[in-house]
Design goal:
Protein name: Phosphohydrolase
Number of domains: 1
CATH architecture: Orthogonal Bundle
Structural class: mainly alpha
InterPro entries: HD/PDEase_dom, HD_domain
Shape: globular
Oligomer: single chain
Organism: Persicobacter psychrovividus
Pfam family, one: HD
Length: about 220
């Protein structure tokens, strides 16, 4: 992978501190520690890659949730704008700043049947790192944390999951938290871009399947 300069590492350290101060204590599962885990996931994938721009990957991971559409009335343009403004303030060269902005713009899951518009290899790494944090034990915890924060019912046996055809339908969905597993979490294993993330996703996916079976058994008083 392309090594980082002293200046680039300083920007990464500065950005980590900035993001930590901005998101520490947030309670929906999109807090600093989510961003930290995505950053570490991205670094772990990056370690196995060659010809990859580590600076773009790490900055993309740190800034990927700088202004998530879920917290800006569904406006997906806010995050890229905030990222571009921040990177301009640091003095990052325009071409690499735009590579990072591209990641911020396209990293999010936007529906089961919505095409992935991520174009860069660096973006695929960050997207996988983010999706890994949405599955497994932490994914389960984050899903219920977010569902509770927006008032979603934990489970409604009468409600069916929906595989959304477009982003508008996905972001306006008011489904139960358990349905979210079928609308997103259980689909992510097969949406990973890199071999490294695919391998990790297998175990996390199996954990979620086991969790759901236990959940349904307990719901009916069977165990």
């Amino acid at each position: 992978m392309k090594s980082k300069t002293v200046q680039e590492q300083a920007w990464i350290d500065q950005t980590a501190a900035f993001v930590k101060s901005k998101f520490e204590g947030e309670g929906t599962g999109h807090d600093w520690w989510h961003i930290y885990r995505v950053w570490k996931n991205a670094q772990n994938i990056l370690d196995k890659k060659s010809n990859m721009d580590a600076f773009v990957v790490e900055m993309g991971a740190l800034l990927h949730d700088i202004a998530d559409f879920k917290f800006h009335d569904g406006d997906e343009s806010v995050g890229p704008k905030e990222a571009r403004k921040y990177l301009h303030g640091l003095g990052v060269e325009p071409a690499r700043a735009e590579a990072i902005v591209h990641i911020v713009e396209h990293v999010s899951y936007k529906g089961a049947k919505v095409a992935n518009k991520m174009k860069s290899e660096e973006g695929f790494v960050v997207q996988d790192a983010d999706r890994l944090d949405a599955i497994g034990a932490i994914g389960v915890a984050r899903t219920f944390a977010y569902g509770g924060s927006v008032g979603s019912p934990m489970h409604d046996p009468s409600a069916t999951a929906e595989l959304h055809e477009d982003f508008e339908a996905y972001k306006n969905s008011r489904s139960s938290t358990v349905n979210h597993f079928y609308e997103k979490l259980l689909l992510l294993k097969d949406m990973m871009n890199t071999p490294e993330a695919k391998a990790i996703a297998e175990g996390r996916h199996a954990y979620m399947e086991q969790f759901l079976q236990t959940f349904y058994n307990e719901w009916e008083g069977k165990q």
